[in-house]
Amino acid sequence: MMTTRERRPRGAATWLLAGATVAALVGAAPASAEERPAWRDCAGEGAPTGLQCATIEVPVDWAAPDGRRIRLDLARLPATEPARRIGSVLGVPGGPGAEGIEDLKLAAGDLTELRRRFDLVGYDPRTTVWRDRWPQECARPGAALSDPRDQREYAALAAAMTSAFTRCRAADTTGLFAHMDSLSVARDMDAVRRALGEERLSFMANSYGGVAAAAYARLFPRRIRAMYLDGAVNQVDGWPGQHLRALPVRERIFTRFTAWCAATPACALHGEDAGAVWRGLTRAADREPIPVTSPEFGRGELTGWHLRSFAFPGDPGPGDSHWLAFAEAVGKARHGDGSGFADLALGNARVWAMPAALAMTCADGRGYRDYAELDRFGAQARTVSPNFGGASFDALGCAGWPLPVVNPARPLRTRGLPPFLGAGSTWGDYVWTESFTRMVPGSVTVAYDGPGHVLYLAGKRCPIRYATSYLTELKLPEPGTTCPAE
After folding, report:
1. What is the pLDDT of residue 135?
2. Do 115 and 224 fall within a single domain?
3. Where does 223-271 show beta strands of DSSP type E?
4. Prediction pTM value
5. What value does the mean pLDDT take over residues 203-208?
6. Residue 441 class from Cβ within 10 Å (0-12 exposed, 13-18 middle, 19+ buried)?
7. What is the pLDDT of residue 3?
8. Exposure class string for 363-388: b at 16+ Cβ within 10 A, else e
9. Residue 119 is part of a domain; what is its CATH number?
C-alpha cells in the first residue's frame, strides 16, 4: 500500500522499475515439484559467499496440476554450523513482484547469527515471473485514476478498468493473469518446502508478503514452525480497514512535520501554519486541479486527492531532506506551480491503473466491492484524517476486476498455528502488523520507534535480534517491547 516514493531497498514497489530476472516461463515438463532441486554454486559479484541456486517447477493453475508450468528460482545460504542445524527459514518477499533472492542477498550480512542454525532460503515468486513477462498491453493504464465523486463516475472507472483488464488478459501468453492470487503463491511456497525436504518451515515475511503468509497459514497451518512478520499487510482484516488503521498514524506524522516546520527556519513554510496551508492547497486543487507536465509521464492534473494520496513523505529523510522538499513543493503549488509533485503523483496514478500491476493484487480482494463501500469508507477516512482522507488509491484500480476474487478478506482460523512474532515502525506499518499478529493467540509485535519499512532488510539491529531469538529458540519478547530508532 505504499507509494513509489516510499521504497525500501527492494521495496514494495521496486518491481515497477526492476529489470530482468532469471525466472523464466517453461512449457510442461516431466520434473515434479516433489523432486529435490539440483543446487549449484551461484555466488558472483555482489552475492554472499556460499550462495547456492536451484529451480523448481509449479503449475500455473494449481487446479490443473498437469497443465502449463512455470519455473521459480531459489537461492540458499547453508547453515554455518551444520551439526546444530534446525532447518530452513524461507523469506517471503513483498511487492507483490519483489525478488526474494535479492532480499536474501541484501539481508545476508545482517542475518549471520540466524544462519548459524538455519539454511536461509529466498525465492522469486510467480509475481516476479509475471513482472518480467507481462505483455506491453498490460502496462497501459486503464483510466486516469481519481477519487469518484458519485456512482456515475465510479461506474465509468469500473467500465474503463474492465476493458483494460480484458485486453491485458487477451494479450497474456503466460496464463498467469488469472492465477496470481496469494492462495496460489502459498501453494508455491509449500512446493518450496517439499523441495527442501522439510516437514515444517520457519518464515520471514515482509510487506505484501504478509498476504501470502496469511494464505499459507490458512492452507497449511501445521507446516509452520515459526512465522516472523515485518511490516506485513493484514489482508485478513480487509483492505479498507487497513487504510483506516494507517490514517491516524499519518496524521500524527504530519503533526510532527508541522511542528518541525514551525521550529525550522529552512522550512519553506516556516512562520506560517503549515497544516492550514496544506489543507487550503488540497481543497483548492479539488475545486480547480493544477495543470502539470512531467518529463516522464507527460501532461496531467493534480487534484487534492492526488496530493493527499501521494505527496506527503512520512519519512523526513537524511537531514530532513524529504520534508524540506515537500514544504518547498507545497509553497510553489499554492501559487499554481505543481512541478514538485508532478512526477510522483502522475507516476503513481499511472502505476495504480496498470492492469499489469493490479493483476497481482485484485484477486486478493484489494478493491472496493462497489461504490457504496467506497463512499462509506471514504467518509470514514475523511473523518479520521482531515489531511489525507479519501478513497484509497491502491484499491481504486481494482474496480472492474473481471475475475472472481478467489482470496477475499475473511476470518483466519488459528487452530494449529504457533505464536507469531511481528515487527513494525510506529511511524507507519506497525498498526498493520500488530493487527495481524493479535489474531494468533500468544503472538507479540515489537514496535520500532522510528521511520522505516521492513526492518530486517534495512539492517535494524534490535528487531533482527528479537527475530533471531524467536526463530532459533521459539522465544518471544514481552508484550509491549519497543526498539529505539537506529
Report:
1. 96
2. yes
3. 224-230
4. 0.91
5. 97
6. exposed
7. 42
8. bbbbbbeebeebbebbebbbeebebb
9. 3.40.50.1820
